[in-house]
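Sequence only, no structure available. Ideas?
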Amino acid sequence: MFDRIAHRYDLLNRVLSLRRDVYWRNAVANYLPEHRDLTILDVATGTADLLISLVNKCDRIKSAVGMDMSPRMLELGQKKISSGKYKEIIRLVRSDALWIPFTSSSFDAVTIAFGIRNVTDVSGALGEMSRVLKPGGKILILEFSLPRNRFLRKIYPFHLKGILPRMGSIISGDPYAYHYLNETVQTFPHGEQFCLLLEKAGFNSVKAVPLTGGIVTIYHACKAGADS
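Reply:
I predicted one. Tokens follow.
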């Protein structure tokens, strides 16, 4: 599915979010670890939008790896990072969130944007992310959630069920993909429920930061260790 919509993926993100997706990704950089020479892994990196945003916003990143299952997404991501400072810092690999091809305790931070709800085993993926984090390292998850704001709660379901699937279908040419998005956003655990999943996976200092009235949430937590 992601291979089919890759050619319109970035455009649809901008259009359907009214470019708020750029702000949301930039906000993730605020929660990176504070020390220098950071090593970052971005799971379900897609076209590498989040990694590019993090490198732009944070000059403490030494190296970053993006991984995804979709070869077409990675192909487009590689084109975006093939010039300038990106090519010196970011590299992309094809792999699965349930089998991360790196040794344990390899990264200072592991990130994932709008991807955790797509994995077949959320607990398994969180466990893999924890495994490759250094002790005291941080997990940063940006994901859709349901608004807390009373007004947004009334109009948001209409956007998800009516506007988003139709616009997504027209622009991407794939009717299924954006109906799938609507379904997963409404059924995936969010807020306190997702915080509990992080705690069960062994993370501590778990926090949920809602953005844009709670349409999306940044979840950040630490792997147990001396610096956590």
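DSSP finds nine helices and seven strands in the chain.
Hope that gets you unstuck.
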